[in-house]
Design a protein that fits this description.
With 170 residues, the chain is mainly alpha-helical. 75% of the residues lie in helices and 0% in strands. The protein has one domain (2-169). It is built from 6 helices and no strands. α1 packs antiparallel against α2.
Length: 170
């Protein structure tokens, strides 16, 4: 079961990671466009900054689980690496459980916020008038996938602690 969960999570996180990468590329293009329009043609746009901010939110939030999956989130290695391997596994389980719970809370609150935005038909107050729930959606997706990734980490560390086949984990 862990192998299936890990495989599905890896596929989803990788897909979202590539989407985040594409979003960063798109953000770079539209910001370069703004620089050219403002600097050369003296004709700044009214949509680029808001769009770049929305893209930034999307890319950072949906790419966070991919970053965690790759082990690239910030850690305090200076202290953590001094503990024995079993203690590191236990600490990973504890911190991942706390992080998963936090992600669960944020996910449920994001869901409620999105429901309210849809119910009230909220739109952005800029010229684009985008439905606000589209801007809130990456919070839900990002933290939901982070929670799932933390659960995978917990299960992997518990499998290692209790002597299950760890070769399957990589």
């Amino acid at each position: 079961m862990l192998k299936v969960l890990r495989s599905i999570t890896r596929f989803c996180n990788t897909f979202l990671g590539y989407c985040a990468g594409f979003g960063i590329f798109a953000m770079g293009l539209i910001l370069a466009y703004e620089v050219v329009m403002r600097g050369i043609f003296k004709s700044p746009t009214i949509w680029v900054m808001d769009t770049a901010i929305y893209l930034f939110m999307w890319t950072m939030l949906i790419g966070s689980a991919y970053t965690l999956m790759l082990g690239k989130h910030v850690k305090i290695d200076l202290i953590f690496d001094r503990f024995p391997k079993k203690m590191q596994l236990v600490l990973d389980v504890i911190t991942s459980a706390m992080a998963a719970y936090f992600c669960y809370v944020v996910t449920t609150q994001a869901w409620k916020m999105i429901q309210t935005s849809i119910k009230l038909n909220k739109l952005t107050d800029n010229m684009m008038h985008i439905p606000v729930w589209w801007i809130q959606l990456p919070l839900l997706i990002g933290f939901a996938m982070l929670a799932v990734q933390f659960v995978v980490i917990i299960l992997e560390r518990l499998a290692s602690l209790f002597g299950c086949d760890c070769a399957e984990q990589k």
